[in-house]
Write a structure and sequence with these properties.
This protein is α+β, with helices and mostly antiparallel strands. It is built from 1 helix and 5 strands; from the N terminus they run βββββα. A 3-stranded antiparallel sheet has the order 1-2-3, with no helix packed on it. A two-stranded antiparallel ribbon has the order 4-5. Strand 2 and strand 3 form a beta hairpin. The longest helix has 17 residues.
Length: 86
């Protein structure tokens, strides 16, 4: 999984444009504006080598790709058991 840094510019008709640096959570893909000193609790995952949003489920390292793979495995199992129809 790559670094999740970006930039956003919001052009407004009634004022100067707003410009922000952004980050993306390596665990859930949430995007947010970087606001130094905002007091929001964010984190950095040393296993994924990237920032996380600080959400309740993102303090424990479970990368989004792994969550998707686990969900697909559950769906395959449910289909094999006849619990899901296509």
């Amino acid at each position: 999984m790559g670094r999740a840094a970006g930039y956003v510019r919001i052009d407004r008709p009634d004022g100067p444009p707003l410009e922000y640096d952004t980050l993306m959570c390596v665990h859930c893909n949430l995007h947010w504006y970087v606001e130094p000193g905002s007091g929001k609790q964010r984190g950095f995952c040393t296993l994924c080598n990237g920032p996380h949003c600080g959400g309740r489920n993102c303090w424990r390292c479970i990368p989004l790709e792994k969550k998707v793979e686990e969900g697909l495995a559950r769906m395959r199992l449910a289909a094999a058991m006849g619990l899901v129809t296509k």
